[in-house]
Amino acid sequence: MRAKTKTLIFQGALKAFAEKGFNETTMEQIAEICGVAKGTLYYNFKTKEDLYIFVMESGVQNFITMIQDYIDVVSEDNFRQRIIRLVAAHFDFFQNEQDFCRLLLSRSWGTHERHHTIRHVLQKYFVLLEQELQAAKDRGKLPHHMDVAVIASSLFGMIGFTAMRTISHEESLDNPTLRYNLQSLVLHMLGIFEEE
Known about the structure:
Layout: H1 3-20, H2 27-34, H3 38-44, H4 48-71, H5 79-96, H6 98-105, H7 112-138, H8 148-168, H9 176-189
InterPro entries: Homeodomain-like_sf (IPR009057), HTH-type_TetR-like_transc_reg (IPR050109), HTH_TetR (IPR001647), Tet_transcr_reg_TetR-rel_C_sf (IPR036271), Tscrpt_reg_YsiA_C (IPR013570)
Pfam family, one: TetR_N
Keywords: DNA-binding, Transcription, Transcription regulation
């Protein structure tokens, strides 16, 4: 699939799934939104489920890349600043990718099949977070009794659902008070109280 076609299909399918939900969206509607022939869509994706997985995997990969770019500019020894950058990456991504945020966190993934797909595509995201947390734990930046999987899930829940609630109220995530409050909450949850 050509890059331009791939981008058109990703953007159109994402918009359709985010606005209507998986069950209410048809391949015909997606083709129309994308501005591609229905045959082109079916040639690249045999089922709507295949297209949904493509959208979710592509969106999560973009999310992971952005998080990595944000935290990689900070030394691994400065865990506090890396966490601040991690929170900022989430807010910036969800502010810029609101349709993906809605799709990822909304009720449109309510069936068992959608839960499986979400868990599958988020696996790489959680691996990234858990590796970051484990590295900090190995350096003595986190207490040894803390479970990195639980922390990663908690971070995703706190940041993700705060972002979703903000978006659903049609408010901006580019809000310094909101960001500071959540950043402080995350730092305190991790036992990071002072500048390193």
